[in-house]
Each structure stands twice: as C-alpha cells, then as structure tokens.
Amino acid sequence: MIRTPLRPLARILRARERGENPDAIERENKRMRHEEMRDRARLQAESRLILLAVAFLGGFLLIGGRMAYIATTDPVEPRAAASGSPIIGQRADILDRNGRILATNLDTYALYAQPQQMIDPEAAATRLAEIFPELDAERLRTDFTGTRKFVWVRRQISPEQLQAVHDIGEPGLLFGPREARLYPNGPIAAQVLGGATYGREGVDSAEVIGVAGVERQFDAYLRDPANQGAPLTLSLDLTVQATAEEVLAGGMMLMNAKAASAVLLDVHTGEVIAMVSLPDFDPNTRPALSPETSPDDNPLFNRAVQGVYELGSTFKVFAVSQALELGLVNADTMIDTRGPLTWGRFRIRDFHNYGAQLSVTDVVVKSSNIGTARIALQIGADRQREFLDSLGLLQPTSIELSEARSGRPLFPAQWSEISTMTIGYGHGVSDSPLHLAAAYASIVNGGTLVTPTLIRQDRAQTGPRIISEATSRIMRSMLREVVQHGTATFGDVEGYDVGGKTGTADKPNPQGGYYDDKVIATFASFFPASDPRYVLVVSLDEPVETSGSEPRRTAGWTAVPVAAEMIRRIAPILGMRPQIETAEADGVTLTSN
Amino acid sequence: MTEMIHREYPVQVGDPVLPRWWRTIDRWTMSCILILFGIGLLLGLAASPPLAARNGLDPFHYVIRQAVFGGLALSVMLVISMLPPRLIRRFGVLGFFVAICAIALLPFFGTDYGKGAVRWFSLGFGSIQPSEFLKPGLIVLTAWFMSASQEIGGPPGRLYSFIIVAFVTLLLALQPDFGQAVLVLFSWGVIYFVAGAPVMLILLLGGLVVLTGTVAYSNSEHFARRIDGFLSPEVDPTTQLGYATNAIREGGFFGVGVGEGQVKWSLPDAHTDFIVAVAAEEYGLVCVFIIIALFAVIVIRSLYRLTKERDPFVRLAGVGLAASFGIQAMINIGVAVRLLPAKGMTLPFVSYGGSSLIAGGIALGMLLALTRSRPQGEIADVLKRWGR
Questions:
Q1: Which of residues 356-415 of A touch B (CB under 8 A)?
Q2: What does the DSSP assignment read for A425-439?
C-alpha cells in the first residue's frame, strides 16, 4: 500500500538530502492533488446531476399534469373573449295592479361581425346596408376590411332582419342572443315606467339597465337574481291610466293647452292609480334627451312629479281647513272681503267684487283671495308653514320614481306676513300636482296624512292625523258646494257626487313678474264627496277656451270640464256605481223570485 | 494492482467496433429515440396534409420528406454514436466554427422566406438553418473549455466559454431568434452549474431574476398585462393558444380519432410548434403522455448515466446535450398547455423540419456516444476507500 505522507515537502527534502531527483516526487504529488480535485468535482457534479434530473422529472410531470387537467375540461366554442363578471340577463317584469304587463322582455339578437372570418366583406357591407337603411355601407366596408377583429353592427334586430342577415350567408356575421325591454302598451304610463337601455354588452348576453322612472328606481330589485324574476307590481291600473291619457289628450287639444298632467290617487291607501303627463313618448324608443330642451317641451319630463307650479286657489283649502282646525273660524264666520286689500305696497284683488262680507264657506265657494288672505293672516306665518310642511307640501314627494327628488317645492326663505297672505291663496309656494293630490287626500279622507306610492298596497295607510274628522267633514261639504254652485259647476258629474276646488295661477315670467295671459289651470277634485275614495288633480298648462266672445282661461272653464269628463269615464272602470236620486222610486217594491 | 483492475474490464483496442458499440451503448435511450421518431412520422401523417394542401402539393409530400430526412438523421446519429469522445470533441469544435461562419454569412447569402427573420440558406432542394447545427457544437466547445479549466494550470475556460456564448447569443438575438438564444444561454448555464458554479452565485442570480420580475411587474403596465393575460384562466379562443387548448380539450383521453382532428386546419404551425396539440386532439392524452414519458426517459436516463462518468469533458458535454434536448421539448409542450408564454420552438425529433431533424440527430448521436459505458475505475474507488 502506498501511504500518503502527511507533509509532501518532507519527502522532497529527504530525497534532496539523499541526492535524488525530486521531480518524480513532485509529479507524483501533483497527480495526487489533481486526482483528489477531480474526485471532489465528480462528487459535486454527481449530486448536481441528480438535482438536475429531479428538476427535469418535475418539469415533465408538471407539463403532463397540466395536459391532463386541460384534457379533462370541457371544450368551449371559439368566440370573442368576454371579460369580467358574467352578465345577468332576465330583468323582472313590471305589472299593473291587476297583473297586466307594463314592461317585459323579448328575446332578440344583436348583430356583430368578426371581419377576419369574412369571405366577402365588401358584399356583406352592401347587403347589410340594404337590410338596415340607417347603416352606412361605406363605413361598414372600412370596418370590415380594416384591422378590426370585432364590430358591433346592430344592438337589436327583428326576426325578419335576422332572417335577412342569415340569407347573406356570410360566416363572419354573427348573432348574439340578448333580451330587449319591451313596453307592450307603447306610450301609456311612459314617464312612470321610464325606460331601459343596454349596459355592459357581451356576445352571449347584454345587461338591461333602467334609465328613468320605476325602471331606474327599482333597477337593483328588477335585476336581482335572488328574486327569481318575481315581477314588480305597481299601483297603476292600466285601463284607468289609458282612459285618463286619452281624455287628458283630448282636453289638452280642446283647451289649446301646451301641456297637461293628471294624478288619480286612492285617498286611503295613497296608491297612484293613474299618473299622466303630456306630451309623452314611447319608452320602447326613448328619445335622446337634448340638454337645451326646456322642461316645458320635454316629453321625458314628468309634470305630475317634477313640475312644480304655483297652484293658485286650490291652496285656499289648506288655509281654511287650518283655520277651522285651530278654531279661529267656523263655516259660517263672516270674513271681510272689501277690496282691494292693501298691505304695504301690495294690493290683493278678487276676480269679481264679492261685496263687503262673505261667510268662510262662500270664501271657498266663490274663491275670494281677500277673504283667504285675511284668514291666513289670522293663522300666522309659523303655524301656516308648519301645517303645509305636515302635509308634505314643502319637501319633494317620496314617490318611487327616480325623478321624484327633482320635484322640489319652492317657497320663500323669508316667510313674511305678505307671504303668508299670498300663500294662503296659492301664490308663493310651488308644488307638483302629485303634492296637491296627496295633500287633498289627507284633508278629505278624514284627516290623516297620505303618502303617495306607486307600489300596490293591501291596506289603508295609517298616517299621522293632520286635521280632525269633523274639520275634514266640513271641508268635504264646503268643497262639494264649490262644485254644486261655485267656481267648478262644470265638474258636477251626475251620480258621483264630486267635490273639489279650482285654481287658476298666473304663470311666472322667467324675466320677472307674471304673465297676463298665461295661466296654469288646476282642478283638484275628489269623489264621492260623502265618502271620498279618489282624488283627481288635473292641471292644464296655458289653456285658452275660445268658444265664448272672449278667451277664457280660468280653471272653471278649462280644467274642470276635462276633469269631469275624466271622472265620468273612469269612475265606472273603478267599479263605482252612480248614485242616482231614487225619490220617485219609493212606491215601487222590488221583488225577486 | 493495476493489472488486476484491467483484467476486470477486458476492453481492448482490437475489439470489433459494432459488437462493442452494441454492448456499451445505452439501448434504452436509443429505443426511446427511435420510438419518438416513429411517433413524429405518425403525427406528420396527421398534421402536415393541410399544409401540403395549402401549398398545392401531394398530401403526403411533407411526410415523405420527413421520412427521408429522418433516415438521414438516424444514420448520422448512429455513425456519430460510434465515435469515441475524443473525436466527438474534435468534430464538435470544428462543426461549431463552420456553423458560426455560416451564421455570420447569413445576412449576405441567407433568405428569410418572408417570415421576417433571416435564418436560412436556400439550397436547390431545401434549406438549411445553420443555427440548428450551432447548438451541439457550442455545447461541446463549452464543455471542452470548462473541463480544461478543471485541470491544474488549465486555461480560464469558464470565462472564455462565457465570452463565446455571449457572442453567439448576440448573433442569434440579432437574427432575431430569441428562442434559440435563450436555449443556448440555458445550456451554458446548466454546464456551468454541473461544472461547479458557486452556490452563492446561483442564489444571487435567482434573486436577481425574481427582483427584476417583481420590479418589471409593478412598474411596467405592458409587462404586467402580458403576465396577467398569461396567468388568467380564460384564453381568447381565437388565438393559436386558444385553438391548441381547445384541441387538447376535444381530444380527451383517447382522442377524436385518426384524421378526425380539426385544429390542424386552423393552426398555421400545426406541424411544427403545435404538433402536440394535433397529437392530443387525434390520439388523446395517452399519446401525449407517451411522448412526454419518452422525452423524460431519454433526459433522465442520460443524466443518470452521466453521474457515473469520470471524464469531466464527457460529463459536461453530455449534460449540456441532454439538458438542451429536454428543455426544448419542455418549452414546446409547455407552450401548448399554456404553462409558458408563446415562443416558437420545435419539438425535437417530432416536429417537421429537415435542419432540426438532422441537427437533432447529430446532438443525440453525440449524447449516445458520450453516455456509452466505459471503464471508469469504480473498483479503484472501492479499494481506495476500503484501504483507508
């Protein structure tokens, strides 16, 4: 055995001493060192090679596993990639109070193109332009022959158009299923329903989102999959709504009004049975809103909710009922009505001279501004404001429409004594017809507050008490008298016992002051007066009745006949029987077998 | 002592070449290579008729070409596998210099075949891609330098080889052929790793890569979007990757049947870069598993045999060849299954392509030659350890 010396140099020194050549020993040492080094390198390489082999094995296993994972998943059709969360279709229907459909969905298709799959893009563009006249063939051609990989052609196509596009036979033209929102009744209840449009769009489906009205207000509810498509039931009655729109449109034309609105409210439940605002639109093809359109001409504008106007003498009811409630007057108290009433630099006049004194009832029946101003003066500013506020006349209505917040009442910041007087007869506070309807309902239903709603209710509201039963009864008989022999005699619909109050307010001029020849004529009515069930407010914008020798604009000549016709048509639909005096029938004995 | 050892290994110079070759060659690896080539022909039958149809040729034009080139490649492989390591080294280094000259001449005599990168020399009957031939030569050269640096008083081979590799990488990147450039760098890295790269350096490099990636991800929106798109489970089905993924899904376990596949009609690179997708669609997961297993056996078995190797040059050259072969297969299949971002790289010995086949034959021939069993003096090891 060769022993490796501990000190290599020792051997060399010894060899030198012996006179031998040390080179051999040195070579030997070097060889040993080299071998040792190689052994070390080899052992290191061995472990690293094993490491490498394991890494390769892991890599191949990973790739094989991934392959197996992909192979066991389901294939998908090649389509344009849809990014983000899946789009939920299936918007819930909207029904009227009797379950008739106001808004529903229609399966339809969107048309899109994948130009790189097209065989003959030029011909496709030409044929498409023939099928859809509103499309520009030139534009389509550039889209189809350019570098774009995806082009929306139409958001929605009819079955006939679908077939026509099919017949082109172009594989690069594709149809994406989606739902379209359909309003089968066209413009009926247009402003209430609002409308819908497409939100996020994919080729498999598209999101339908509400843009106005209840569609927007209840957007989250209608789209919530958790509701499983449960429909939204509104308080509207489709038949009544349609009739009201028809009558109002006719009345608007007859009275030469530029716009009109009507609200029919259940006095106990607060349900809005009909709500009309004219001019209107078809929510299926909702017109684009141009910002410079003034609200007066804008069909999208819901006058019944958003339009706040000074509603004139209809407000006298609030002053009188509050004075009765406070015990300041009773129905027969005589009020000084000598005019004009001068207060500072203001002069308050009546339409006619009613003489020196009128009873409170007559102040209402004959609609005396001076008399009401004196009553309001007795009430005082603070109490008046409190009362109007309790009736909800100083805040936007809480009706379930996305536009309700914009129907904000206008009233003076400084509620001075003169304001108190003018507000007493309806100038100085601007409210929407819906405000007025809800306040009238609260006055005549026995005196409890009514909050208007568009959702069907099952029972009467139990709002806080505004006035006593007794006051409410007095007000009902007083307002019945207005129709019987006051300013609203045209409103006496036989058998329905209508009560109500007219209001003719001069329209404010945007340049300041009021117009002489432009009014807003309003008739706030309720029926039957003995036990009211419905409140109807009809408001005409700039009506002129020209059958007489001179143009007549007062509500009694314009709004009242329209409202009367509406009641005549609607009341039977609502299931109310006319109550005909049966005095002569006393001698007849009804028998049955 | 020495006589005793040599009597254990009666290998003599006069031993006939073929029997010795048969006895010492790694028959497992060789069988795997032959099977792989057979599968390549089979897949070529499926994948290349659409291409032939597009080019207006006989349906099996490319299959016949592949068979001819394959025969040539197998012959080259067998001949090379008979050479001793010394000759491998000699031819490898010579081949490297020839290839590098050819690449340098590419800008003057090469063609780009309308693909944007000048990589080919056009001959009358076909074309040659010199960068394919560069790789085995470069690996041999690197291994030579590295092993020389392990000698006492040897040259600083690591530095020299690095300079050469950097130069070659630059040349390839200029073509541009980033896939091959990355492959060359990777092979050098593996050889350096086995030749004893310091652990600190490896950790440092790894840390640097992670750091650069993180910085790039958080700072470059473009880079982040690419990575996110790559990581997202949804793939746009109209891209090549989407078609490949769908083909794999369609195939399932046993495939849709021979000739029934659809992906080969949609993918322009079905016969090269995405041949695995064709295999997965027509023959199913089973076929893909067999392909992967064959590659794994070739690579891992070669590496295992090299652990026993005592000659540093043989060890390093073998590692480089096996690793570059394995990594190329991994990248190709990894792209098809979306483990790696898209990068054009052929599946060695399976994809269609004359140059890549013959270059693969050369590389595998070298690998076979280097992994042949040789006397390694294991007994001396045992005795030495036992004697101490």
A1: none
A2: TT-S-EE-HHHHHHH
pLDDT for A577-592, tens place per residue?
888 765 454 555 556 5
Whole-model pTM? 0.55
Q: What is the dihedral of CA B262, B266, B269, B272, to 10 degrees?
A: 0
- Looking at the fold, whether A224 and A244 belong to one and the same domain comes out as no
Determine the Cα angle at A159 with ends A157 and A165, to 5°.
70
A211 with A259, same domain: the answer is: no
Q: Do A56 and B252 touch (CB under 8 A)?
A: no
- Residue A449 in any domain: the answer is yes
Complex-level ipTM: 0.88
Which uninterrupted H or E stretch holds A13? Answer: helix A8-17
Nearest CA distance, A34 vs chain B (angstrom): 7
One domain for residues A429 and A537: yes
A330 touches chain B (CB under 8 A): no
Which domain-ending residue is among A233, A267, A282? Answer: A233
Edge to edge, what strands does the sheet with A272-278 contain?
A272-278, A259-266, A534-541, A514-527, A499-508
Domain contains A193: yes
With an 8 Å Cβ cutoff, is A68 touching chain B? Answer: yes
Residue B330 with chain A: CB contacts under 8 Å: 56, 59-60, 63
If one counts the domains in chain A, the total is 3
The answer to whether residues B85 and B313 touch, using CB atoms and an 8 Å cutoff, is yes
Q: Same domain for A215 and A188?
A: yes
**Residue B323 class from Cβ within 10 Å (0-12 exposed, 13-18 middle, 19+ buried)?**
buried
Domain that holds residue A419: 240-331+377-573
Tell me which amino acid residue A448 is.
Answer: T
pLDDT at B239 over 70: no
Q: Are residues A302 and A404 in the same domain?
A: yes
Q: Residues A218, A246: one domain?
A: no
Residue of A nearest to B237 (CA): A78
